[in-house]
Amino acid sequence: MKEKKRCLVSAIYVKVREGCDIGKVNSAIQGHTRKASAVRTKSMITDVSDSLSGVSKTVTWLIVTVWVLSFVILLIVFFMIANERKKEFALLRLLGTSRAILGSVVRKEAAVCSLAGGIVGIALAALVLFPFTRLIEKSLGLPYLTPEIPVILLTALLTLAGTVLAGSMASFWSAARLSRVDPGCVLRGN
Amino acid sequence: MALLELKNVSKIYGDLKALNDVSIQVEKGEWVAIMGPSGSGKSTMMNIIGCMDKPTIGEVLLDGVDISKESQKALTDIRRDKIGLIFQQFHMVTYLTAVENVMVSQYYHSMPDEEEALEALDRVGLRERAKHLPGQLSGGEQQRVCVARALINHPELILADEPTGNLDEANENIVLDLFRQLHREGTTLIVVTHDPEVAEAAQRTIVLEHGRVAREVINENFSNQ
Known about the structure:
The complex is a heterodimer of chains A (190) and B (225).
Chain A: H1 22-32, H2 42-84, H3 86-94, H4 99-129, H5 133-140, H6 149-179, H7 183-188
Chain B: E1 2-13, E2 16-27, E3 31-35, H1 42-49, E4 57-62, E5 65-66, H2 72-82, E6 83-86, H3 98-107, H4 114-123, H5 139-151, E7 157-161, H6 169-184, E8 188-192, H7 196-200, E9 204-209, E10 212-218
Parallel strand pairs in B: 3-8, 3-9, 6-7, 7-8
Antiparallel strand pairs in B: 1-2, 1-4, 4-5, 9-10
């Protein structure tokens, strides 16, 4: 006797439109199927969804805060470096460097440092994220899916561009200050 | 022919006249020392001659060009092309070697040329120390690197501010010998100093007091040998 082919389905999730009456959908499924029971899982799904959106919002705010803080720290760091190197730049002015060239030297240095910092930061983030996905998932108690490679690459590139931009912008003030130093006074220690 | 001429130059800061109606002339190839007590106007005069500042009143003619009317950019170009500066505190870029410090001056003037920079160091007796950082050089050696840096672009005028102020007697003599050598080659030297011995090495000494030229002394025993 030919064995009947059996298709086994354990569970099917049904996504309903926003505002749709889940009870009605539930009854309709019950009325059209045998041996299968329709269970309302709204609370289960929405709980996960709410948690994920909460985590997502927190992460978004964290990212914004980190970027703002980084920018402020870069401003302070470049200000301190500018003070440290005042004599060096005053000397370059005396050797005939124009203000414009001096400003561009400072901005280029800042861009190169930011690029190097960005690459190191992204590499470190990748080192932490990819091997420890499971651990992150466990500690969050939520599904944690790594995006696809093109998305990861795009994120990395955007982060790198953002880092260079933030570093360059943070150096503008210092570059302007350094290019306006009075070389004679600085080198005499006045 | 005068390389530098200050005509009735005054520099006024509020109520203070740092320079008060000063007129001097420095001939091409001349070696002049500027002396005076603190606050006499030496630094102000050096700043004006070195194109780092402009007078409030008066004219400053450098090689026939009135630099008191030039823009900041033009002053930077004049300083780069015509003036070699030497300071008491040396002011070397600490993370660059001796030869790189000399090449920095070339970089912003024309093109860096390591061989030419090494020749300049050779001239001040420091070729073997070319790859040393400033921290690895003595004060005298650093000042000699600064002399090499000042002369690498063949300036018409060497302007030195207390060039021997931080040096011992032996190094002071080495630097003065270098100045004698430059003078023999026709370079114009203006040396701001407190040290009477350094002033005596020059052909002429201009003494400033209270922003005015108090007197000028011709050195009868001058020799650049």
